[in-house]
């Protein structure tokens, strides 16, 4: 796609109403440095350097459409828990507010560098 076509597509999205339904996920990026191995298990001991939150799942879709200029509305349950509060009110939040129940998933990641994922955790809230 050439530059003029990209500009035309972006212009088409500007101000267009878009309704997004789906599950929201809080993506957590933890930039860490491995310092040594743990005594209790063959696992690295990581020193946390930075922590960033980002909207994931349907929240990521809504945020991307809004960045393209669409008038985006996200319809999804956002929990009344710490992850839900960070997702609803943090920088670059896709909108929403607290409701009953937790955010269904969080995806914390701990890369040594931005290009190198050392480990990834998936925390799923059991019902």
Overall description:
The protein has 127 residues and is α/β, with parallel strands linked by helices. The protein is 23% helix and 43% strand. The strands form two sheets. Strands 2, 3, 5, 6 and 7 form a five-stranded mixed β-sheet that branches. A two-stranded parallel ribbon has the order 1-4. A hairpin with a 6-residue loop joins strand 2 (24-37) and strand 3 (44-57). The protein is elongated and about 55 Å long. Residues 90-103 have low confidence and may be disordered.
Question: What's the SSE blueprint?
Answer:
Elements: H1 3-13, E1 17-21, E2 24-37, E3 44-57, H2 58-67, E4 71-75, H3 82-89, E5 105-113, E6 116-120, E7 123-124
Parallel strand pairs: 1-4, 2-5
Antiparallel strand pairs: 2-3, 5-6, 5-7
Question: Main β-sheet: number of strands, strand sense, barrel status?
Answer: 5 strands, mixed
Shape: elongated
Please tell me the total number of domains: 1
Query: From the 3D coordinates, which CATH architecture would you assign?
Result: 3-Layer(aba) Sandwich
The CATH topology corresponds to UDP-N-acetylmuramoyl-L-alanine:D-glutamate ligase
Total number of helical segments? 3
What is Rg?
A: 18 Å
């Amino acid at each position: 796609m050439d530059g003029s076509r990209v500009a035309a597509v972006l212009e088409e999205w500007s101000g267009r109403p878009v309704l997004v339904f789906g599950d929201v996920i809080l993506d957590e990026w933890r930039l860490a440095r491995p310092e040594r191995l743990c005594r209790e298990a063959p696992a690295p001991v990581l020193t946390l350097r930075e922590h960033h939150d980002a909207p994931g799942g349907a929240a990521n879709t809504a945020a991307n459409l809004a960045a393209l200029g669409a008038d985006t509305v996200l319809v999804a349950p956002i929990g009344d828990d710490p992850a839900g509060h960070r997702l609803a009110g943090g920088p670059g939040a896709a909108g929403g507010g607290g409701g009953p129940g937790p955010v269904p998933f969080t995806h914390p990641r701990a890369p040594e560098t931005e290009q190198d994922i050392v480990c990834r955790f998936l925390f799923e809230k059991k019902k």
